[in-house]
Design goal:
It is a single chain. The protein is α/β, with parallel strands linked by helices. It folds into 3 domains: about 230 residues, no CATH class; about 150 residues, Alpha-Beta Plaits (2-Layer Sandwich), CATH 3.30.70; about 250 residues, EAL domain (TIM Barrel). It is built from 26 helices and 21 strands. Strands 12-13-15-16-17-18-19-20 form an 8-stranded mixed beta barrel, surrounded by 5 helices. Strands 6-7-5-10-11 form a 5-stranded mixed beta sheet, sandwiched between helices. The chain has a two-stranded antiparallel sheet with strand order 1-2. A hairpin with a 4-residue loop joins strand 6 and strand 7. Helix 11 runs antiparallel to helix 12. It is elongated and about 145 Å long. The termini are far apart.
Length: about 700
């Protein structure tokens, strides 16, 4: 070690040694900056970065070596072999690129260390080939021990450098990697120079130091240009990456169409604003806004017009906000606006401004477009103790605002919104109810007034949820129609009704209701036929009930489907007759097999002359058309007496029987009729099942 220090201090020009050291440090630093980019990319981009990495690393190593050789002072003439000198530069560049490529390849577990060994070997080859091109007018002797030590130092410190860079344990490891590479290069060179002894043949007492210094500066200048190229490239890439990251951040958090924040940013800001309200003893006003008829704009004027409307609205809203307010587009035509409030601040002025911003017509695509919207308002912490609760309550308020025709801005109301929240919970719970076995069938018997006997039954779905208990059909059927669950539920009811009817002791009809959504299924007749074949039920024993509103929703398609169903041998009944806008027109456009008179008329028979007149007219109409009429909702003997006298052929209602499970229906079916208007079976079943719901 003392020999190496003596070699550096006594046999070298201190200024040129310092220049070489500076070149080495800068080169090592930029080498790892470029290598980091190569490591973080893939494919041809990695190849490009490795090329720059090899150029900068190899050039800096070679410049360090060449300047340090020029710093070596000897009392003899010195010459350089151009071929070997250029070859040493080539080896430094190629070896460095290959070493860094191997280090980041991931080919095997010790690939980083192996890459470091390749770089160390390249540095050693570069040095000794360069020394082979170092020609002096004298004799050169080599100390093999120092030569071996120099190569080992280069291999070990280069491997350590790549190890620390690729397997960092602390944030200081990147500086350790640069330091290790510098030590490897410096130790190789100066240990190798210590191994060399020059014996001049013709000593020079005044070596051309100025010429060597000039050459060293020239080499340093060229090396600086190459390294500078890498530095500039890295800086440009860093700037480009920063710009790209900023653009990516903007795209991830801001809506490109309106320039407002998107849903991702909204979720984060809502949490932050709630925390602000807690820490500053303030409040937060959240307003959800949903545009009216935005889909109509897209359908009539194209999506470009809809985009122009949103862009213009976003610009107007963004310009109309004040300090402490922020607006975001969180959906296709849905916006959210937040405003910080003091403990006692009112929101009237804020909501008035929002009314102007979101509801005043605006100009877009060269035309003035109307702009109407519903607004749901919730205030933290008054209407929610967390960001999620606040958002949910604002959404419920918005739902009410969308349903309102006069008051289009609604505040969160825990009492009013509780019903809607429960309804949404039921909608979620209803999904999969068929698969979980939560549905069952009840049957409401129908009686033939001529014989007083059981003549058929209407199938009614019942839902019992493990948490919500028994849910009324009046509640869950509309929910099922809204969210599409009526399709699997209706299919299940139809199939189970047919399976039950096959087991009945009497071959009477089973009536099954169809919704408007089911009537729009083109494959419905085929499905009914498939169920009849699977269950073995005679088509003549199945009756499909439809309401006027259900088949009038799409008259042509519904009539086509009903005709196909009738062609199977299945009868079709008009349910709830008299409740629609054009009940007589319904009878004109389609030949129903039966008319079911709505229970609303039956319940008023005892108190309303008009109801009696209407019922009597409907019964006469059925007789003239040859279409039997069934009266629903019969609950008293007086109603029954009137219907019998007016010529009604069959009834359904609590007077005869409430809806019953399949087992009780079998017993009712087999009970013999009693003298008088009603059979004893009615009295038995009604007494046994006082709690069963009508349907």
């Amino acid at each position: 070690m003392l020999d190496i220090i003596a070699c550096i201090t006594l046999d070298h020009n201190a200024a040129l040694v310092a220049l070489a050291a500076g070149m080495c440090v800068v080169g090592a630093w930029i080498s790892f900056r470029l290598f980091q980019r190569a490591r973080d990319t893939e494919g041809w981009m990695r190849g490009g970065w490795l090329f720059l990495n090899g150029m900068a690393t190899g050039s800096s190593i070679w410049c360090t070596h060449f300047i340090a050789m020029l710093a070596y002072e000897t009392q003899t003439a010195v010459y350089f072999n151009a071929t070997l000198t250029i070859l040493s530069l080539f080896l430094a560049i190629v070896g460095s690129a290959l070493g860094f490529a191997l280090a980041c390849s991931g080919l095997f577990r010790l690939a980083p260390e192996a890459g470091g060994v390749v770089i160390g070997a390249a540095v050693a080859c570069m040095h000794y080939i360069g020394m082979a091109g170092y020609r002096v007018d004298g004799l050169i002797h080599w100390n093999q021990n120092y030569v071996i030590a120099s190569v080992i130092a280069s291999l070990v410190f280069s491997a350590l450098a790549l190890n620390r860079f690729m397997r960092p344990t602390t944030r200081w490891c990147r500086y350790g990697a640069t330091t290790a590479l510098v030590l490897g290069i410096v130790l190789l060179h100066f240990t190798g120079m210590t191994a060399m002894t020059v014996t001049p043949l013709r000593p020079l007492f005044s070596p051309n130091v100025d010429q060597f210094s000039a050459l060293a500066l020239a080499v340093a200048g060229v090396g600086a240009l190459v390294i500078g190229m890498g530095v500039v490239t890295a800086l440009l890439d860093l700037k480009t990456r920063a710009t790209a990251d900023a653009d990516l951040q903007r795209l991830s958090e801001f809506d490109p169409l309106t320039g407002l924040g998107n849903r991702s940013l909204f979720s984060r800001r809502l949490e932050e604003e709630c925390l602000w309200a807690d820490s500053h003893d303030g409040r937060l006003c959240l307003v959800l806004v949903n545009l009216d008829d935005f889909r109509t704009v897209n359908d009539l004027r194209g999506h470009s017009a809809g985009d122009a409307l949103l862009a213009a609205l976003g610009a107007r809203v963004g310009n109309g906000l004040r300090a402490g307010e922020v607006a975001m587009r969180i959906g296709g035509d849905e916006f959210a606006v937040m405003r910080r409030l003091s403990a006692s601040e009112k929101v009237d002025e804020f909501l008035e401004r929002l009314d102007t911003l979101f509801r005043r017509p605006l100009k877009a695509s060269g035309m003035v477009m109307p702009c109407a919207s519903g607004m749901g308002v919730a205030i933290y912490p008054d209407h929610g103790l967390s960001a999620s609760d606040l958002l949910a309550n604002a959404g419920l308020a918005l739902a009410r605002a969308k349903d309102e025709t006069l008051e289009r801005t609604c505040f969160s109301n825990s009492v009013v919104d509780q019903a809607e929240r429960h309804r949404r919970e039921l909608a979620v719970a209803l999904r999969g109810a068929v698969e979980r076995g939560e549905l069952c069938l009840f049957f409401q018997p129908q009686m033939d007034l001529a014989t007083g006997e059981f003549s058929g039954a209407e199938a009614l779905a019942r839902w019992t949820h493990p948490d919500y208990g028994s849910v009324s059909p009046a509640v869950f059927i509309p929910i099922a129609e809204e969210n599409g669950q009526i399709i699997p539920i209706g299919d299940w009811v139809l199939e189970q009704s047919c399976r039950q009817a096959v087991t009945w002791a009497k071959p009477v009809k089973v009536a099954v209701n169809l919704s408007a959504i089911q009537l729009r299924q083109r494959g419905l007749p085929e499905r009914i036929g498939e169920i009849l074949r699977e269950t073995g039920l005679d088509p003549a024993r199945l009756e499909i009930e439809v309401t006027e509103s259900s088949f009038m929703a799409d008259l042509d398609l519904s009539l086509q489907i009903l005709r196909e169903i009738q062609a199977l041998g299945v009868s079709v009944a008009l349910d709830d007759f008299g409740t629609g806008y054009s009940a007589l027109a319904s009878l004109r456009v389609y030949p129903f097999n039966r008319i079911k008179l709505d229970r609303g008329f039956t319940s008023d028979l005892a108190v309303s002359d008009e109801a009696r007149a209407i019922v009597h007219s409907v019964l006469m109409l059925g007789q003239s058309l040859g279409t039997p009429v069934l009266a629903e909702g019969v609950e008293t003997d007086e109603q029954l007496a009137f219907l019998r006298a007016a010529g009604c052929r069959s009834i359904q209602g609590f007077l005869y029987s409430r809806p019953v499970p399949a087992g009780d229906l079998q017993r009712l079916m087999l009970a013999p009729p009693a003298p008088g208007l009603l059979g004893s079976a009615r009295r038995i079943v009604s007494a046994r099942l006082p709690q069963a719901a009508n349907g």
